[in-house]
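Thread amino acids onto this structure.
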């Protein structure tokens, strides 16, 4: 059974206690599970967390209470009490004398010559006693606590630092951003968008030249050399050399496949509702038909098919030269899109 002190805490308080102890508790856990895990963690790390004031109420309930000695075991008479008081007084006097003697001496004699020198010169020893006591007191105050306490304190600092880093990571918004990017990329539209974006950038790199603009200043103390800065020549947008390859690629990779996938949409189903026929459309454009149309049109235009005489061969060659792998690169994009479409249909 969990301790009553932990059982009285709320979920938010249990999470804060777990963060203080270096244990991370999720909000989705039940309160009983939080109490059980925190109880096990506090029992396991009792040495490290026993000195933390936050858990005084927890460890205070688990300490063994002091049990007074039963005085009815052996009755004490007045004579015995007097003898014991005399012995106790003598013992206390002896211990006081011994402690004063130890404090006065700088260290125990390590050799017979040192002991002889100390006994033969009591005046010198008496004159050095106050300074030696001060030195010993200063040395004792400068000594660190026991190694176990130092190790426990280091572990406690590390646990708090780790908890602080976790809180900073959560407050920075990075987990939410990563989840949003993952959700956006885990879709069929994202796969097709990445493929088309890669093909488009490859084509623009081939068509738009970059012109020299200026040099960055050099900073020799840091070893930074001057760098040439180039900018794209936007005036190429006014020439047919840019628009012919761009329109050809857009037609074969976007517009014609979209038109075909809109009419040949295999995701459309006709059902009857209240005596009327209603079309149910899963996708406005069939992704599988889109990739099949892109594959066939690319083969007909760039692969020397039936449309070779209707398209300028120079323009088609410019498009193929801009793509990674030429015609194989365009077809590979259609293959990847088709496989992704099949996988989505299988999951649905």
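Threaded sequence (348 positions):
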């Amino acid at each position: 059974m969990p301790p009553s002190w932990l059982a009285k805490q709320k979920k938010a308080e249990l999470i804060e206690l777990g963060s203080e102890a270096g244990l991370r508790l999720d909000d989705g856990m039940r309160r009983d599970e939080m109490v059980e895990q925190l109880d096990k963690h506090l029992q396991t790390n009792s040495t490290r967390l026993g000195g933390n004031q936050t858990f005084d109420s927890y460890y205070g309930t688990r300490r063994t209470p002091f049990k007074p000695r039963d005085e009815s075991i052996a009755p004490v008479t007045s004579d015995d009490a007097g003898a014991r008081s005399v012995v106790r007084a003598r013992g206390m006097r002896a211990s006081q004398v011994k402690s004063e003697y130890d404090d006065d001496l700088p260290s125990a004699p390590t050799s017979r010559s040192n002991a002889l020198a100390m006994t033969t010169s009591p005046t010198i020893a008496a004159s050095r006693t106050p300074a030696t006591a001060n030195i010993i007191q200063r040395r004792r105050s400068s000594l660190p606590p026991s190694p176990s306490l130092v190790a426990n304190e280091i572990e406690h600092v590390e646990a708090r630092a780790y908890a602080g880093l976790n809180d900073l990571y959560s407050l920075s918004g990075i987990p939410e951003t990563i989840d949003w990017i993952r959700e956006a990329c885990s879709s069929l539209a994202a796969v097709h968008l990445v493929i088309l974006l890669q093909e488009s950038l490859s084509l623009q790199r081939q068509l738009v030249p970059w012109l020299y603009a200026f040099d960055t200043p050099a900073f020799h103390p840091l070893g930074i050399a001057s760098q040439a800065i180039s900018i794209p020549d936007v005036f190429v947008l006014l020439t047919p050399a840019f628009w012919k390859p761009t329109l050809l690629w857009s037609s074969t990779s976007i517009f014609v496949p979209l038109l075909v996938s809109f009419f040949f949409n295999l995701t459309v189903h006709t059902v009857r509702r209240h005596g009327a026929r209603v079309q149910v459309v899963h996708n406005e454009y069939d992704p599988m038909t889109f990739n099949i149309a892109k594959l066939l049109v690319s083969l007909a235009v760039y692969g020397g098919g039936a449309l070779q005489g209707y398209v300028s061969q120079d323009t088609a060659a410019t498009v193929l030269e801009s793509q990674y792998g030429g015609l194989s690169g365009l077809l590979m994009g259609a293959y990847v899109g088709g496989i992704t479409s099949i996988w989505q249909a299988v999951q649905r």
